[in-house]
Amino acid sequence: MRLPRRMFVLLSSSLFAGGLLHCYHSQSVDVATIARDSLTGRDIISEVTLIDGREIHYDKGTRPTLRGDTLRGQVHDAMLYVPIDSVQRVWIRKLDPVRTTLATVGILVAVAGVVSAIAIASKQSCPFIYSWDGQRYVFDAEPYGGAITRGLERDDYGELHSLVADHGVYRLLVTNEVNETQYTNRLRLLIVDHAPGLTIRADEFGRFYGFDSLVALSSAYDANGRDLRPWLVATDALIWEPVVPPEGSAGVREDITMSFAKPKTASQGFLLTRISTGLWGSQMIRQFSQLRGTALNDWYAMIDSSSSRAAALRSWNIREELYALKIEVEEPSGWNVRGILPGGGPFLATDRVVSLDLSHVRGDSVRIRIRPPYGFWALNSFAIAYGSFPQLHVTAVDVATARTSDGRDVRSELTATDERYYAMPTTADHAFVTFAAPALAPGITRTIFAHARGYYRLHLNPATPPDSATLAEFMTVPDAAARFAYTRYTQSHPRIALAH
Question: Where are the alpha helices (DSSP H) in 361-479?
């Protein structure tokens, strides 16, 4: 929602008070921290999402600033003042003229505690992939999030929305921007040329689907009856990411029920989502790892050498739903798990599709339930389809050239799934990668995905003994890890203010 073009507007805390009564929660912000951790000269606030669901887009070419507890910025040629405790998410455009990159990320104010740049937000996973859009490299993908050691190495299929051919060549920039070593085993493009109007999605296993019609979300409510449909119905800047439960609530999970219209005869559905790992959930990867103390490297070795141990860890993750989310469908026998939704990086919401068995559903609607732990999931949009286009041709394009920041040729490291990896141990590491662009037939639309495979290792050197009791509780007590994360959140964000 853009504010009207007219006179100077002042949004005061008192003006917002009535409108916030229906909101899930707001977070107070440590103003002293904001003053200390200001944005760098290359970082510009482009937009904010308010906790009542409104969006404010600042005029291009202007630079909003934070003074005290108020965000000041120009909207439609007029100065707008917004109390920072009315802001849910700050959208930051990060420009790097040296590498010609542009990254736009949305940072949840409640988690960061500050209006901050990407580095300050403490992202804890995944390389960044930038696509050349004809003028600059645009942040477009965050592959293999959560694969924190080689035994958890995995494939990732992310659409590259910004990639365009430049004189017959597609160009990517792969960077490490966090305190970890990233190991990329393979990188290639998967190209789907198709009729206009089709929506193309890939599932976590690299299967591709085309949809010529989508059914929008009919309703979405949490356990307290709050209407979440405005937040979840469209791909936009409204991202539902509560990090603490509402006052008086028990447990550490949300309970969200969604409904969609359904043809009575439909026995299969495809849930299309745009989601990401919550920023607090991303930060918890480091804290969970640190609990292993001096035994961390032994744990890595165990997971890397034992497929059964790695499988058990994945099963635990599905049980806890920290970085994978169960999709439950309501049937005459009750709620049954009919799909698993994988997570992704914390800064780019990722398009996912999950095939659902609906053969047991009766009637002309389907109800779906998710129960995400607080702080671990950021939810943008949900839709459903009841049939996929049967004839999709996928063209795989391998790397043509790959040159690192220090001049090395790493093409061979990226062209096959094998024992060779392109390793990026520092935040100065990056590689420019090119691919030959196949000819596009007239009247055909192209959708391009990056197929990346790899893992990463956080830079940790814990000197304390492992916290065996806490780790054992994680494995044996359901929701113990999510409860630990919530406790850590309240300890690091003591000034939580809840509004109902």
Answer: 411-414, 468-476
Q: How many CA atoms lie within 13 A of 48 on its CB side?
A: 30
How confident is the model over 122-132, as pLDDT tens digits?
455 688 999 99
Whether residue 450 is predicted with pLDDT greater than 70 in this model: the reply is yes
| pLDDT over 60 at 10, yes or no | no
- Give CA–CA dist 328/320, Å, rounded: 14
φ/ψ region of 303 (left if φ > 0, alpha if ψ in -120 to 50, else beta) reads alpha
The H or E element spanning position 197 is none
Which ranges of 294-386 does DSSP label H, i.e. alpha helix? 296-305, 307-320
Q: Is 456 exposed, middle or buried (0-12, 13-18, 19+ CB in 10 A)?
A: buried
Q: How many residues does the chain have?
A: 500
Whether the per-residue pLDDT at 36 is higher than 90: the answer is: no
Q: Let me know if 377 is exposed, middle or buried by CB neighbors in 10 A (0-12, 13-18, 19+).
A: buried
How many Cβ atoms from other residues are within 10 Å of residue 274's Cβ?
21
User: What share of the chain in percent tops pLDDT 70?
Assistant: 87
Is residue 269 within 8 Å of 116, Cβ to Cβ? Answer: no
The lowest-confidence range among 39-48, 272-281, 332-341 is 39-48
Higher-confidence position of 490 and 290: 290
The β-bridge relationship of strands 169-175 and 430-436 is: antiparallel
The C-alpha atoms of residue 384 and residue 329 are separated, in whole angstroms, by: 13
